[in-house]
Write a sequence for this structure.
């Protein structure tokens, strides 16, 4: 059927359905750096941009053994539709995982989701009306902000320091937003091994943050993908361990096992959990029975805590390689020094702009994520997130050395053409433009 | 932390966050018959209510062999994050599946989703503003209507006959909605082996329906989970084979392979596909690499067309058992006689109400889905959907015999207390209340 004769909802040449989209679709835009990241995925590029766990540290036979058991003992169940809330046995096992961070809960309050990302999506669909405000750390997780924006909410950032989110700044921000008549729906926070900042909310601040939320009637959405991946000392217990009525907690197997199964979860107060289940059923009918049963068998058979120790050792070595390389090659920059997780947040000399510099970095065969990706307000130009989770220690050293060449080259250029003190750049779009998911 | 001292977004005793939900959350309500279906899942009940495929007809070794190949050849890839659009090799293979229904497309226009259910969700999120209208057949697929409602859209039903959606009725409905100033966003249709009606859109009507949509600038969302499961004669080609600019097509491996992997797909015009990918990335980052690679290996190694023939034989035998049992035990009812798919749509004698009758049916150890579940306007009281996909032919005969006892018992009761001609019933809520997913 040709386009002739179609009386369109008025479109344009590129998209005849342009005017049919919902208002919220305007919030979903491709990242300006997306094409660049496609280039950056070439093998000769050292990518410090991604958030991919190092799954090769997971012994093959542990997964094969779980697959075999699932097919032998639960084949038809694994291949069939299941409950919208998730497999009961797995929900019980998730309690054991959360207990490691001080959480005491009931399996009936756990809902299994397609990665914790989908829990974020379902929660946002349930809570966000257009114009609502989500408070989050600044910087914050890119793809969470993409979701909030896709439901036409605004994100209000609150700064962190080395001890995480600053309580006084949170108080002020809330007061300020309330004075403007804004409707604050929830505080989205990554208290432990923050993505991208690499810092952890100090123990004494945890109760204080919860108290501020409680006083102001604000729900807390605690996103905790990295909490078990500490390098030496265990971090403070999860926020949820201190407040079961005011916190919705998100967890995942993507970092402690493997993201390819897409299994995460939410732990929520009773009434919210009920609505999350209905939203999950509407969205996907049920999470993958196969994926859930494989993970359940893995948790039953394998030394999963020992495997997490293995991952901790891998990431600790890589983090140390990154920090020592930064000291050696980039003494003019500053950075956070994470005690767990995947990420370092780097601050460039103040004349430099990480986004403007990225094409040159990719040409020099190193990639990172510009800091602006993690803010909705144009912040982060002087910052970048560099990840140590996927490249080997040797690759990390090579990558940081290349990055230093780029930084020094930019500084030379700037000093040669000095005067403006700032390289030309493009204005911020105010959108949260997610890089492709394997990079976020 | 206790509830004391919490200054709530004003809630209620059952849910302190009651007033925090988005307006759209009101559309997500638990089904009134949900508790009853929990009872109906007891093994002694013959359930004609569900839409579960008979996965036991899939030989175990075909899946084991695919699992083994994935682990041997692509282990780290299967365990890792992947592309938000889906695995390229699988998208190529999906073209071969769609070619069986006359569709000619490019793999770059295919996006892999978490079951075709998630494609429905993402598409709805992209297109539906509050107050928009979706046109669909009446009755229609429950969980699609739950999604439309969750984005605050209205569903306008158009009747079917034995040849499917009625073109003249569609024309009138569109004209009528336009006269009311309504914004019609798309036509949601299941043209082949309709769920729940069991009818198929006749070949000559397909071009006509597309022409009506085109004239009115209405996008068509073609949902086709059952098209390859015909009993004898192949049905007419998919709508998408006739119009590549005006149709978004949804397919799934849930019925031709197994739903436990949660892998379906959308085929969409370029610009829409781009937005669907961004919406998919925001919602789940990427579909399960593991599930996709297992299915891709299955399609590479196994005689998947032969396996579909096996499923067709299984379902044909069950459909015949159902129709012959209906003729034998329920001569006072009428029903559709599907030429493929999973469902028969039964019409009771006009005094009876299928929803009011359900508790009695469950007591008699047979379950079905009341017709009202498939309408948003209180329609379908005299109807029910009975599924032949999961129970064996013998169980189907037992189930229909039990159903006949219930129907005859209700008729006896009615004639004993005649006068009103109608049993008491509860008013329709106007909501699309989905039964649990394994039943929908």
């Amino acid at each position: 059927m040709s386009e002739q004769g179609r009386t369109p909802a008025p479109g344009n040449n590129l998209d005849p359905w342009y005017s049919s989209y919902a208002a919220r679709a305007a919030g979903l835009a491709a990242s300006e750096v997306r094409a660049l990241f496609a280039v950056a995925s070439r093998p000769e590029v050292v990518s410090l941009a991604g958030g991919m766990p190092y799954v090769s540290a997971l012994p093959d036979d542990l997964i094969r053994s779980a697959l075999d058991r699932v097919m032998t003992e639960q084949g038809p169940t694994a291949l069939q539709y299941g409950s919208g809330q998730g497999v009961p046995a797995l929900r019980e096992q998730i309690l054991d995982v959360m207990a490691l961070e001080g959480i005491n809960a009931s399996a009936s309050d756990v809902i299994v989701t397609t990665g914790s990302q989908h829990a974020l999506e379902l929660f946002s669909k349930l809570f966000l009306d257009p114009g609502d405000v989500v408070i989050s750390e600044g910087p914050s997780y890119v793809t969470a902000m993409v979701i909030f924006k896709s439901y036409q909410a605004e994100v209000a950032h609150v700064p962190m320091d080395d001890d995480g989110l600053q309580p006084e700044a949170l108080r002020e921000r809330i007061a300020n937003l309330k004075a403007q008549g804004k409707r604050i729906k929830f505080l989205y926070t990554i208290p432990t091994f923050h993505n991208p900042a690499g810092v952890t909310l100090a123990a004494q601040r945890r109760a204080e943050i919860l108290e501020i939320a409680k006083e102001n009637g604000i729900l807390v959405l605690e996103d905790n993908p990295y909490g078990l991946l500490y390098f030496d000392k265990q971090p403070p217990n999860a926020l949820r361990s201190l407040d079961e009525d005011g916190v919705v907690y998100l967890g995942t197997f993507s970092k402690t096992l493997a993201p390819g199964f897409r299994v995460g979860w939410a732990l929520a107060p009773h009434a919210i959990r009920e609505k999350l289940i209905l939203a999950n059923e509407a969205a996907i009918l049920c999470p993958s029975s196969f994926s859930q049963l494989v993970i359940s068998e893995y948790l039953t058979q394998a030394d999963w805590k020992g495997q997490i120790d293995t991952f901790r050792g891998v990431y600790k070595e890589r983090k140390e390689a990154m920090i020592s390389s930064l000291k050696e090659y980039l003494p003019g920059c500053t950075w956070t020094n994470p005690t767990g997780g995947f990420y370092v947040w780097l601050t460039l000399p103040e004349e430099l702009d990480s986004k403007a510099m990225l094409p040159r970095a990719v040409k020099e065969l190193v990639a990172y994520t510009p800091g602006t990706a993690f803010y909705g307000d144009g912040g982060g130009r002087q910052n970048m997130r560099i990840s140590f989770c996927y490249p080997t220690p040797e690759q990390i050293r090579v990558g940081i050395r290349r990055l230093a060449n780029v930084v020094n080259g930019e500084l030379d250029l700037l000093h040669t053409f000095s005067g403006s003190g700032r390289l030309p750049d493009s204005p911020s779009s105010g959108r949260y433009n997610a890089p492709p998911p394997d990079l976020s």
About this structure: DSSP finds twelve helices and 14 strands in chain A.
